[in-house]
Specification:
Layout (H helix, E strand, L loop, with lengths): L1 H35 L4 H6 L3 H17 L22 H4 L1 H24 L2 H23 L9
Helix pairs in contact: 1-3, 1-6, 3-5, 5-6
């Protein structure tokens, strides 16, 4: 029973951080849609404003603060195969992982500041930098491949 409870807890951590990452993705997709825009005034309004981008960037920054606490020991893809893509490198190189979460927060705050200007070019540059230097850089080192679908 103790082993089952531990596995359930590990899976809970994995599910919680996956939910946070999905929310993060939702924020980034909405920011991308805002930047892409629309020539149709009704659709353009639905894509939001620079103020909405500020709010979404704040959400990403807040999520970055929570990330380290969601990576409890024994919750890697080696510990709970098929339930997470978190590589064991997160725990073996914790300082590097923690620094990556701080970089994500810093870059999200830069995106928030760019959005406050209302300048689409600045917002787009900050969004691209966040995606490349924070999200992709961390995923490249600390996220395993997608599980292969069984036939």
């Amino acid at each position: 029973p103790v082993g089952a409870a531990m596995a359930q807890t590990a899976e809970h951590y994995a599910k919680t951080r996956q939910a946070l990452m999905k929310e993060n993705s939702t924020h980034l997709k909405a920011i991308g849609a805002f930047l892409k825009g629309s020539k149709n005034p009704k659709k353009a309004k639905a894509l939001g404003t620079a103020g909405d981008v500020e709010f979404r960037a704040m959400g990403i920054a807040a999520m970055a603060d929570k990330l380290p606490s969601l990576f409890a020991q024994k919750t890697s893809l080696a510990d709970i195969p098929g339930k997470t893509r978190a590589k064991p490198a997160i725990w073996s190189d914790w300082n590097k992982f923690y620094a990556a979460t701080r970089k994500l927060k810093s870059m999200a705050l830069e995106l928030e500041a760019a959005a406050a200007t209302g300048d689409r070019a600045k917002i787009d540059a900050a969004r691209k930098a966040l995606g490349k230097e924070a999200c992709a850089a961390c995923h490249k080192v600390f996220r395993g491949p997608k599980p292969k679908k069984s036939m």
